[in-house]
Amino acid sequence: MFSASQAVIRGRLRGLVVEDLDQTYTGAWIVPAGVTSIFVQVWGPGAGAGASDATYGGGGGGGGGYAEGTIACVGGDVASVNVGEGGAGGIAPGGTGGSGGYSLFQLNGTSLESAGVEATGGSPGVNGVGGSVFGGAVGFDGGAGFSLLSADGGGGGGAAGSVGNGADAPSATGGTGGGPDSGTGGNGGVVAEGGGAFGAGGGGHNAGPEVDGGRGANGHIRITYTVS
Q: Given pLDDT bands bounded at 50, 70 and 90, which one contains residue 27?
């Protein structure tokens, strides 16, 4: 079960509780006594960028998807939780980046459509594509990483968020996130940055020097509810 030592951060303001599950973890979350409804936000993890070699720059990794939904519950209900891990950057020379995993919040083992929220991770460079969304009342896709199969390294795709899709990386510059908490993709080109917070894709370095790709950012789950 989750505890504060397992990176569950609790904030309280006028009866409102916000819990952020911000580490890569698979486990369970128990609905507190007296709670009848929870609002769940899920960010899928970003993908790692490809590594550069003497001829080709590394393609940027795709950003993770985003989903949210309000779920009816009672105290003591148990949710299965997985906070997805960002994909590793490709290993030089020329290695492909790792895919983002998935983030999942599913209550009492029921179907995602009725009581769960899931967002998948991005796909790796070259030309990483954004993660997709399953379940949840609202869902958006992550942005694609950039690559031209040329000497130029590509930026990572932005993570989707509560406002909309993550932006595709337009060049070596990472794509912006689709909401205030969603990560911007890592910059590529003369650097190979990891993805920003909450599911952004990693950036790939230009050709010439053999440089590992930037890592995708981990996913995230946020649970909001009211206590009396």
A: confident
User: Three-state SS for 79?
Assistant: strand
- Region 29-51: mean pLDDT is 94
83, 223 Cβ separation under 8 angstroms: no
DSSP state of 209: S
Sheet containing strand 66-72, edge to edge, reads 8-13, 16-21, 220-226, 37-43, 66-72, 138-140
- With beta carbons less than 8 A apart as the criterion, state whether 150 and 143 touch: no
Q: Which two tokens stand for residue 140?
A: 């958006």
- State residue 4 phi and psi, 5-degree precision: -60, -30
Domain span at 193: 1-228
- In angstroms, the CA 208 to CA 225 distance is 51
pTM assigned to the model: 0.91
Report how many domains make up the chain: 1
CB 64 within 8 A of CB 219: yes
